[in-house]
Design goal:
It holds the Pfam family SusD_RagB. The protein has helices at about 5-10, 40-55, 60-65, 85, 100-115, 125-150, 170-185, 205-220, 225-240, 240-245, 360-365, 370-375, 475-490, 490-505, 515-525, 530-545, 550-555, 560-565, 585-590, and strands spanning about 75, 265-270, 315, 320, 340-345, 375-380, 380, 390, 400-405, 410-415, 425, 430, 435, 450, 470-475. The protein has a three-stranded mixed sheet with strand order 7-10-13, with no helix packed on it. Strands 1-5 form a two-stranded antiparallel sheet. The protein starts with 5 loop residues before the first helix and ends in a 13-residue tail after the last helix. The protein is globular, with a radius of gyration of 25 Å. The chain is built from 19 helices and 15 strands. With about 600 residues, the chain is mostly helical.
Length: about 600
């Protein structure tokens, strides 16, 4: 991994704070304004806020809040149940992992902006520091306003604790967000520049979030001006991609190769490290969660060591039953079996999409030419242990004895189509492993997301991932632009941008040039094909599992409609008021001076 990142490097400037929160939501007395009266203090404040992004993106609770209970995901076998998946009982005591973190970060940045104006630095360097701060304040407020709507708006550095708080209109919050992103974009460099290396905020990153903020506000207010501005900014980023050092990989799968984590398609990340001095975990300790740990690779991973019995059978109810010695043991390549959420492959039994499931029949429907399904999910598990299966073993219906070869034989095949004879045969041919077609997928057996996997961790393959959590990829610029053009009434331009993404998805290294050309042609769409539902499906194909699905559905006013259409678990409970999340009860309880702190309606 890269060795110099602002969020790691600058933490050394304030190790006495352990790279923990600089300020709690109620500021602590040991943090005084003079801390920010030096270049080191300002840089340390910025680094601390970057660190707090690491404390959310990629961690378990926050990732569930951003993705669970949508059209894309339903519960895995170890989800723990709960309202986040179904909306049933969702309230201020079981949601809001980032509320306090966000306001801590905002206050820290307000300190940086207040005192950073007078630090002794060259003017160009000072401008970059302050631009980073403005970007980060807007970044956190953008998350807050999308999640909760009206929120407290703070632009002054708070040093005196208060038990009073109020919610400010979302319209005022958006004004600050747009102002901060605009000013940050004006002063940030085109490409990462020391000390903000790796993939910290740059000019195109600030412009991208500015476009997305305009797009989101446009949906709220039906503002054609906002849609037009979002479309223009997106097109400008694409037109200047060479200046910014950005581009799409020719092969969609290359965007997720670990060696490309900081490559041309990556725009903005939350960095991670296994360096012990940062204290996130002990290498080799097999840490299982906690602050700043990237567990992204495993949330959608099924329990392949415990549910891949060689003689698994289908019972009288048509359910796959695990039987026999496991064909697999846990390893770093296939990852940890968390099975918190899983792709929504459950067929709907009623309504306009009866008989279909979102995963295969709607999102990844053109799997023959679209490479994104194959590049996003594991469907083949190669044996990582050798077992001998005798002809007389219980539930072995194959009638033969054999031994699996490590690294050669397929242990589990999860085809995206029905296979006669599954799970022990392909037609009439005995299969050494097991075949699990879509009709047998369930809460503990399903295709896992592979694009975030990290097979090169420390001495213990249960250690957290040290790959960065990629928050923004260049591909999303095209998708945001397409959505903005659609809403602005220019479907032709929307189709043009979508076709760039779709034709890239048609490319496969294993194809001949003629095959790639034919696939690219097959992926083309016309402007008449472009609807908001088509764009949401396209976002699934391109961004599945990348921490934004709830925001996508909320922004486009599609949450309730699409959950009722596709998600049988959540459909009975989701209601219109769920477009906003419940204010944490702790915030309401702490506000004991002045008017009460109000909860969002419906909770």
């Amino acid at each position: 991994m890269k060795k110099i990142k602002i969020s790691i490097l600058a933490c050394t400037l304030f190790l006495s704070l352990g790279c923990e929160k600089i300020l709690e939501e109620k500021p602590q007395s040991q943090i005084v304004p003079s801390y920010f009266n030096s270049p080191a203090g300002v840089l340390g404040g910025i680094a601390g806020v970057y660190n707090e992004i690491r404390n959310q993106w990629g961690t378990e609770g926050f990732s569930s809040e951003m993705q669970a209970g949508t059209d894309e995901f339903i519960q895995g076998a170890s989800s723990g149940g709960g309202p986040i998946h179904t909306f049933n009982g969702l309230n201020g005591t079981n949601f809001g992992s980032a509320w306090g973190t966000a306001f801590t970060c905002v206050n820290t940045i307000n300190g940086v902006l207040k005192f950073g104006q007078s630090i002794d630095l060259p003017e160009a360097t000072k401008k970059q520091y302050l631009a980073q701060a403005k970007f980060l304040r807007a970044f956190w407020y953008f998350y807050l306003v999308q999640t909760w709507g009206d929120v407290p708006l703070h632009t002054e550095f708070i040093t005196v604790p208060s038990q009073a708080a109020k919610r400010d209109p979302a319209s005022e919050v958006y004004k600050l967000i747009i102002k901060d992103f605009t000013e940050a974009a004006a002063d940030l460099p085109d490409k990462p520049t020391a000390p903000f290396l790796g993939k910290a905020a740059t000019k195109p990153v600030a412009l991208f979030f500015l476009a997305k903020a305009y797009l989101t506000r446009g949906w709220l207010t039906n503002s054609q001006a906002d849609f037009t501005e979002a479309a223009k900014i997106s097109s400008d980023i694409i037109a200047n991609k060479a200046t910014y050092g950005l581009d799409l990989w020719q092969d969609f799968g290359d965007a997720f190769v670990p060696a490309n984590d900081y490559g041309k398609e990556t725009m903005f990340v939350s960095d991670h490290s296994n360096d012990a001095k940062f204290g996130y975990y002990s290498v080799g300790g097999g840490a299982s969660g906690g602050a700043a740990q990237n567990l992204t690779p495993w949330f959608t991973n099924w329990n392949y060591p415990n549910n891949s019995g060689v003689n698994s059978i289908v019972n009288a109810n048509g359910v796959l039953v695990n039987s026999g010695t496991s064909l697999m043991v846990r390893d770093s390549y296939y990852g940890r079996p968390y099975q918190r959420i899983r792709p929504n492959s459950v067929k709907q039994t009623t309504g306009e999409v009866a008989g279909k499931n979102y995963f295969l029949d709607q999102a990844f429907v053109k799997r023959d030419v679209d490479s994104r399904f194959a590049n996003t999910f594991y469907t083949v598990y190669i044996s990582n242990q050798s077992i001998t299966n005798t002809a007389t073993a219980a539930n072995n219906k194959r009638g033969i004895s054999y031994t699996t070869q490590i690294g050669v034989d397929t242990a589990v095949w999860l085809p995206d189509f029905e296979v006669p004879g599954a799970p022990q045969f392909v037609g009439t041919r005995p299969f050494k492993g097991i075949v699990v077609p879509p009709s047998l997928w369930k809460a503990d057996v399903f295709p896992a997301i592979k694009k975030h996997m990290d097979p090169s961790r420390g001495s213990n393959f249960n250690d957290p991932s040290t790959r960065p959590v990629v928050i923004t990829r260049f591909a999303e610029v095209y998708l945001v632009g397409a959505e903005a053009y659609l809403q602005a009434g220019n479907k032709a331009k929307a189709a043009e941008l979508l076709n760039v993404i779709r034709q890239r998805a048609a490319y496969r290294k294993t194809n001949t040039p003629a095959q790639n050309a034919a696939a690219a042609e097959a992926m083309l769409i016309k402007e008449s094909d472009v609807t908001i539902d088509f764009i949401l499906d396209e976002r699934s194909r391109e961004l599945f599992g990348e921490w934004m699905r709830n925001q996508d559905l909320v922004r486009t006013k599609s949450l309730v409609r699409r959950i009722k259409l596709w998600n049988k678990e959540a459909a009975p409970y989701v209601q219109d008021f769920h477009i906003l999340r419940p204010i944490p009860q702790s915030e309401i309880d702490r506000t004991v001076e002045g008017p009460p702190f109000t909860q969002n309606p419906g909770y």
